[in-house]
Amino acid sequence: MVLYVRKFQVEASSETLILRQKKAGYGQVDLLLQDFSDLPSLISIPIVRISFTGLKMYVVESKGGAIACMLLALFFLGTWPAILTLLERRGRLPQHTYLDYSITNLLAAVVIALTFGQIGESKPDMPNFITQLSQDNWTCVLFAMAGGVFLSLGNLSTQYAWAFVGLSVTEVITSSITVVIGTTLNYFLDDRINKAEILFPGVGCFLIAVCLGSAVHFSNAADNEAKLSALSKLYKDVPGAGEFSGFKEAFPNKDGIKDLESESVRVEKSKAGTADFLIELENKRAIKVFGKSTFIGLGIALFAGVCFSLFSPAFNLATNDQWHTMKAGIPHLVVYTAFFYFSVSCFVVAIILNIGFLYHPILNLPRSSLSAYLNDWNGRKWALLAGLLCGFGNGLQFMGGQAAGYAAADAVQALPLVSTFWGILLFGEYRRSSKRTYVLLVSMLFMFIVAVGVLMASSGHRKT
């Protein structure tokens, strides 16, 4: 409810006064007032008018609002990978986890579309979500759906890369490739609304960060090898211990393990970062990585990075139609409508691939089935939460990008800042590592902090 104060003009005739509203655009109100012929010919009377007006669709327009969206998206997008990694380390099949994740990821897009995208009355230049579903905008819809396909392939790939090279390094590699390729494409697609002299030094910071991330991985891998070699030597030196195979059974009694939804507690627990901890983790996790080349994981991470670098430019084309594929007079896709189509294609690809992986698994994972997935409730609520976090994180990224430029919105690719925090807190990554590893780790995180600040400082303002 909005209060308007408007002046009305009174025109006097011999027997009738006609009260007319001066303000154009609100219609004309005529009130007949009898027997006021003695009034002056023109009187202005202030009148308080109460008007009920429709709500307006919520669209982020300010630079401050865009940065707030980016920061919240950064937290969400850096947290959901940690949840999925935790489930894989607890032994849950990635196919089961990703199917759960995909459901709530789509649900988040539907919620955003039916709330932010449906607020207020539909307008010719900014139709609401339901109205836009029936418009002839299929070319931009295809761009949005292509972006969803790229994101789905990237997310699916990273789920396997995490097992080989760790959460932190995977996120560093994929995020840096995304920024270098995706940010450059978005800069030119957005008609250079971002400040190039600030934006590209930020991209350079990401390049330095990826180099440091790779160095962190190889340094930490060398530390782990040294720990396992020392334990192997210890077993050989103990009479009657037999030859150390590197795969001793860490959990002879399944009831002794505390999983995500169980209250049973193990009596003894290996300290994070020790050789015993690494072996226990290998025995319990779903994807076995001992004896396999880390180049497999790095290759998967590189493929994921290329996929991630293309989904944001595709979404940019869907909402702003820089290639002029839409018919004249048809409004551009509102960010909420584009995000809905984006998430639908992401969901479809994930369902098709993961159901296929149930019956034809990769990387020597055990074979599963649709019925086994439906009956696997171990950790399901965490997978569903991860999907919601990713869905809302992507939505916030696009909302901020539509306002301040998608190149600046790529600042959310600094999610390794959050992922590394969770990796250290939840998984004991880099515990009891060498000083060299710690120095490289701190340097990598510092470069990401600088990159985030620089990219956000390059934010522009899209003309509407």
Written account of the structure:
By secondary structure, this protein is an alpha+beta fold. The chain folds into 2 domains: 2-51, no CATH class; 63-223 and 287-457, no CATH class. Helices cover 60% and strands 6% of the residues. The protein is built from 14 helices and 4 strands. It has a 4-stranded antiparallel sheet with strand order 3-2-1-4, with no helix packed on it. Helix 5 packs antiparallel against helix 6. It is globular. The two termini are 26 Å apart. Keywords: ATP-binding, Membrane, Nucleotide-binding, Transmembrane, Transmembrane helix, Transport. It is found in: Membrane. It is a multi-pass membrane protein.
Task: Give me the secondary-structure topology.
Layout: E1 2-12, E2 16-21, E3 32-34, E4 42-51, H1 63-89, H2 94-115, H3 129-133, H4 138-165, H5 167-189, H6 196-237, H7 275-284, H8 294-320, H9 335-359, H10 370-374, H11 380-404, H12 406-409, H13 416-427, H14 435-457
Antiparallel strand pairs: 1-2, 1-4, 2-3
Membrane topology: Multi-pass membrane protein
GO molecular function, one term: allantoin:proton symporter activity
Transmembrane segments: 65-86, 98-116, 136-153, 160-186, 198-218, 295-318, 338-362, 382-400, 406-426, 438-458
Relevant terms:
disordered N terminus; 6% strand; 2 domains; 4-stranded antiparallel β-sheet; alpha+beta; 14 helices; 464 residues; UPS_plant
